[in-house]
């Protein structure tokens, strides 16, 4: 029994190390690009995208096509919401949400959810991307394009790191 517990702990520690190292290195590349260029190569929804690439590398939602399409849809939906609700020139908000931003975030998330399902590209972190855009946190057209470029860089880095052995399929889940 003790041998089984120790083997399970060893396996879990090895997986934790792979997830930590893989996700950390992947986000470090994008963060380095942001540091050296002073451009938004890193933003909150990249974190869960990097994490999921290593914690569940074979999950359908983590397929590179789905990741790229979902974040692209999220950027476009968020930008469309800014225009549709007339808040393209209004300062970004996180507190004291006005009705226009309420409409923008509602529309953006609804559009992102519906379109990613229609396009067979569900990827939950894209929901955060669309809110980042719809709240006006990232809105400049160049920066919106960089969001998708950063996702592409992250996908490529994750793929390279997985080829180096930093990801293995998750073991079957057991609930205590």
Topology:
Blueprint lengths: L1 H36 L8 H10 L8 H21 L14 H20 L6 H10 L6 H26 L10
Helix pairs in contact: 1-2, 1-6, 2-6, 3-4, 3-5, 3-6, 4-5
Task: Give a structural overview.
This protein is mainly alpha-helical. The protein has one domain. It has six helices and no strands. Helix 1 packs antiparallel against helix 6, helix 2 packs parallel to helix 6 and helix 3 runs antiparallel to helix 6. The mean pLDDT is 90.
Backbone shape: elongated
Mean pLDDT across residues = 90
**Major beta-sheet overview:** none
Q: What is the count of distinct domains?
A: 1
Fraction of residues in β-strands: under 5%
Structural class: mainly alpha
Whole-number radius of gyration? 18 Å
E-strand count? 0
Helices and strands, in order, run as HHHHHH
Distance between the termini: 16 Å
DSSP summary: helix tally: 6
Low-confidence stretches: none
Helical fraction equals: 55-70%
Summarize it.
The chain is an all-alpha fold.
Q: Notable features of this structure?
A:
176 residues, mainly alpha, 6 helices, 70% helix
